[in-house]
Write a structure and sequence with these properties.
Blueprint (H helix, E strand, L loop, with lengths): L10 H30 L1 E9 L4 H16 L3 E10 L4 H15 L4 E10 L1 H6 L4 E4 L4 E3 L4 E3 L20 H23 L7 H5 L3 E3 H7 L4 E2 L2 H11 L5 E6 L10 E3 L5 E3 L16 H8 L6 E2 L2 E2 L14 E3 L6
Parallel strand pairs: 1-2, 1-9, 2-3, 3-4, 3-5, 4-8
Antiparallel strand pairs: 5-7, 6-14, 10-11, 12-13
């Protein structure tokens, strides 16, 4: 084979040879470089928590957080919260799942609109809580549906005269309230500018107020939270994977009667008729234009003239003054 000196090869052919060599070298090196980049990058999972919280909500969030922990490509999680609350049991399950996930990767909860009551409970174990300036946050409270009447002999001790008593519902509501309150103090106590009694009043706060009083950590949107968790996870470039429920909705849980009373019902739902619901006082008022009796911890208000609780009270709620 004859080898021609490079200076004897026409310039156009020289350029063609150089281009060919560059293509060959690029083809050999590119897979290694691409693999290096893929190893360094990862995914931020954005998991939506919206609407009334029920068992379907908690199952979805638990499944998605479990997948995030087991998927090597997911390096961080953002909870995109838009909920005024719901079932205490379901909220507690999500609270635990968030806590477990935050032990393995950065997790930030973000609220652009509302994150109150059970939804706020869910966020407590995230690393940080981001809120939009006008978002509604807080309402460390519990609302329970009125007990279903068991006939004229309700409250009698005979075994065939009903097994449920209003005191049972009240005790359950107050127990859940205490657990909720303890969780807030445990997870936010170092940041809170409010004492325990003030927290128990179950007020909601704007995003600006929430950052000032320690209910939240930063003013920011979901997008801000995404970039922050990516930075904490050490991701220079990353994918965003959004996970939302399949759209299954819950039947109505609230009904307003023609005389203005509010009835909480579990009819045609998977909830027990006595299952307490976490809702905000403001959300209740917005929905029905009515107020309901409130109490903080074991203290109850709205008593009748005889010093006893009104017998026609339609719901118990741990909260502050209605708007």
């Amino acid at each position: 084979m004859t080898l021609w000196p490079i200076d004897k090869i026409p310039r156009r052919q020289q350029l063609a040879v150089v281009a060919l060599v560059a293509v060959i070298v690029g083809a050999l090196v590119a897979p290694q470089v691409y693999g290096q980049t893929s190893d360094d990058d990862g995914t931020v999972a954005v998991i939506e928590v919206n609407g009334i919280i029920h068992s379907g909500t908690s199952q979805f969030v638990e499944d998605e957080l479990r997948e995030a922990r087991h998927n090597d490509s997911i390096e961080a999680v953002v909870l995109d919260v838009d909920s005024g609350g719901g079932s205490p049991g379901s909220s507690e399950r999500m609270y635990t799942a968030v806590e477990r996930t935050a032990q393995e990767m950065p997790v930030i909860a973000a609220v652009d609109s509302i994150g109150a009551s059970g939804a706020y409970y869910t966020m407590l174990t995230a690393d940080d809580i981001y809120v939009a300036p006008t978002a509604q946050v807080g309402s460390v409270g519990v609302a329970g549906p009125a007990p279903m009447p068991s006939g004229p002999n309700e409250g009698n001790s005979a075994p065939d005269k009903g097994t449920f008593h209003p005191d049972d519902d009240r005790a359950q509501t107050e127990t859940i309230q205490e657990v909720f309150l303890e969780s807030v103090m445990e997870n936010r106590g170092d940041e809170l500018e409010l004492d325990r009694e003030e927290v128990a009043h179950a007020r909601t706060y704007t995003g600006v107020e929430a950052v000032e009083n320690g209910y939240a950590d930063e003013i920011g949107t979901v997008d801000d939270a995404i970039y922050e968790v990516a930075d904490r996870a050490g991701l220079d470039s990353f994918e965003i994977s959004t996970h939302r429920p399949d759209g299954e909705s819950m039947p109505p849980l609230f009904q307003a009667t023609t005389d203005g009373d509010v009835v909480v019902t579990a009819a045609e739902t998977e909830l027990s008729p006595y299952q307490p619901l976490l809702v905000t006082q403001e959300l209740w008022y917005d929905l029905f234009g009515t107020q309901f009796e409130t109490h903080a911890g074991a203290e109850r208000s709205g008593t009748g003239s005889d010093g006893h609780e009104p017998s026609n009270s339609s719901a118990d709620h741990t909260g502050g003054e209605a708007p």
